[in-house]
């Protein structure tokens, strides 16, 4: 028996209206991602990479097509269902990071556990371990505004992983990191994929990030195409 895909998109379209004009960003996109698989999505600026992640992350609905993620038909979920789906199943690293400025680094990390009612000893221990793994154990009590861009990005990485999501959606996850730190973060993703079959969809302009994925897909003129099997 073959394993059902974790992500299945069929004929997905997304259009945005700007004044009288309508712009088609995604035009009949098909995509399947298996549990534990890492896929890099590349494409020029404005080609729709973040839009694709937002649709798969149930942040906004498509205008056409089917989206099935972790057994859930996203179009069938209401607002509450979408919120629960995001909290339980997904880790999302946004391009703007979206750290909560009024919470410390550790409190930001504990937030997904709190929302999932899993703020217990094991959860706290894992949060501390992740902070250590992204090299920020000493900054647990710092405020986000006192961190460098790269440190903030690493907090966002740890926060996206702390509740053990089945799927990581990451928008330029290493954009503000130096080469060595970026490699450390990518290794952490790989370890978690091996440890708990977490799948990852990474939007990136970085050839190094893309090369580490199992597959690379490219968005161009609204269409998605397979570029190659990446070498690992
Ligand atoms: N909420 C919105 N309203 C109107 N247009 C939008 C909206 N969100 C995205 N767009 C448009 O959709 C297109 C795709 O944007 P998107 O952010 O998905 O591209 P991207 O490939 O992630 O770009 P980058 O590599 O620069 O981050 C852009 O032209 C953008 O202006």
UniProtKB/TrEMBL annotation:
> Which keywords annotate this record?
ATP-binding, Nucleotide-binding, Transport
The record's listing under InterPro entries reads: AAA+_ATPase, ABC_transporter-like_ATP-bd, ABC_transporter-like_CS, ABC_transpr_LolD-like, MacB-like_ATP-bd, P-loop_NTPase
Q: Quick check: keyword Transcription in the entry?
A: no
Q: What GO molecular-function term can you cite, just one?
A: ATP binding
Domain (ABC transporter): residue spans on this chain: 7-230
Recorded superkingdom: Bacteria
- What's the name of the protein? ABC transporter ATP-binding protein
């Amino acid at each position: 028996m073959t394993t059902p895909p974790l992500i299945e998109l069929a004929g997905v379209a997304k259009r945005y209206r700007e004044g009288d004009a309508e712009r088609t960003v995604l035009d009949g996109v098909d995509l399947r991602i298996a549990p534990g698989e890492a896929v890099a999505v590349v494409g020029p600026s404005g080609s729709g990479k973040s839009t694709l992640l937002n649709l798969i992350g149930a942040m906004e609905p498509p205008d056409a097509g089917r989206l099935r993620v972790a057994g859930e038909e996203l179009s069938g979920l209401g607002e509450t269902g979408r919120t629960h789906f995001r909290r339980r199943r997904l880790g999302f690293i946004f391009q703007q990071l979206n750290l909560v400025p009024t919470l410390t680094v550790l409190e930001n990390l504990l937030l997904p556990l709190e929302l999932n009612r899993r703020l217990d000893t094991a959860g706290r221990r894992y949060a501390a371990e992740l902070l250590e793994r992204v090299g920020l154990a000493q900054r647990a009590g710092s405020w986000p505004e006192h961190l460098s861009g790269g440190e903030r990005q690493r907090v966002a990485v740890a926060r996206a992983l702390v509740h053990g999501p089945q799927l990581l959606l990451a928008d330029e996850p290493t954009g503000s990191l130096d080469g060595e730190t970026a490699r450390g973060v990518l290794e952490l993703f790989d370890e978690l994929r091996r440890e708990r079959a977490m799948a990852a969809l990474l939007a990136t302009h970085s050839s190094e990030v893309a090369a580490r994925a199992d597959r690379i897909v490219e968005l161009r003129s609204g269409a998605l195409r397979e570029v190659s099997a990446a070498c690992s």
